Amino acid sequence: MLKITNLSKNYKQKEVLKNINLEVKKGIALALVGESGSGKSTLGRLILALEEASFGEIYIENKKLKSWLKENKSAISIVFQDYRSSINPNFKIIEALQEPYWQKKQQITLKQIEELLTQVELPSWVLNSYIHELSGGQVQRVCIARALLSNPQILILDEALNALDIYTQTQIIKLLKKLQKEKNLTYFFITHDLESASALCEEIAVLYKGNIVETLNINNLKNAKHFYTKALIQAVIHI
Ligand SMILES: Nc1ncnc2c1ncn2[C@@H]1O[C@H](COP(=O)(O)OP(=O)(O)OP(=O)(O)O)[C@@H](O)[C@H]1O
């Protein structure tokens, strides 16, 4: 589904991503795990085509990213960590869900919104609420619903669980797994947390100082070779 070849990204003299090669199959959840500043969000922005790579290419279904996006508008969505500031506090939830479509010709019906609300397991009263009236988990469900409204094939989750308590994280992981199955979604989960990565994803790519140093199946973590991956695993065992 998604293939990244020899990709590098420089900001002025600084090489943030170095010769990245990565493949994600359709319907698979891949976690991009790495320490702060390793370049995870930069790679996310490149996949969303918000920025251009300095070298290399991103392909989706064997087409260059930009030409694929022209044919498949809004087919990549993102959910951010900072869910409270992702939604305008002056909007009711119904308006926050409709807002991305106000400028576009595309119409989103109330029925579509209600169906999606059921899929993310939120009651319908939420639509007439403001975000300050909802819990963190409920707001993140709204953000997931908003990301799914455009019917994406790929969902980028940029530290999307970080701001939630452990219990709510577990609930959202369950929800994301259910949605992945129902909609055959491909997830690109950006995180520094190996524990939530293992709970959600089938595969893990480890980013260390701008390099993918290792890609592992989740059932194969014991065969990790790179010292940074081993340190991450040890840290989880220790906890
Ligand atoms: N627009 C930019 N201009 C210059 N440098 C940038 C820009 N965006 C990111 N960087 C630098 O690139 C490096 C990687 O940043 P990035 O946000 O991708 O890392 P990250 O792994 O997502 O970090 P975190 O986990 O803290 O969010 C950092 O050193 C950052 O300062």
Q: What report would you give on this structure?
A:
- This protein is of the alpha/beta class.
- The chain has helices spanning 40-47, 65-71, 83-86, 93-98, 110-119, 136-148, 166-183, 194-200, 227-238, and strands spanning 2-11, 14-24, 29-34, 55-60, 63-64, 76-80, 154-158, 186-191, 203-208, 211-217.
- Strands 6-7-8-3-9-10 form a six-stranded mixed sheet, sandwiched between helices.
- A hairpin with a 2-residue loop joins strand 4 and strand 5 (63-64).
- The longest helix has 18 residues, at 166-183.
- It is globular, with a radius of gyration of 18 Å.
- The two termini are 35 Å apart.
- It binds adenosine-5'-triphosphate.
- Adenosine-5'-triphosphate binds next to helix 1.
SSE topology sketch:
Blueprint: E1 2-11, E2 14-24, E3 29-34, H1 40-47, E4 55-60, E5 63-64, H2 65-71, E6 76-80, H3 83-86, H4 93-98, H5 110-119, H6 136-148, E7 154-158, H7 166-183, E8 186-191, H8 194-200, E9 203-208, E10 211-217, H9 227-238
Parallel strand pairs: 3-8, 3-9, 6-7, 7-8
Antiparallel strand pairs: 1-2, 1-4, 4-5, 9-10
The chain binds adenosine-5'-triphosphate (ATP).
Adenosine-5'-triphosphate is lined by residues 11, 16, 34, 36-42, 192.
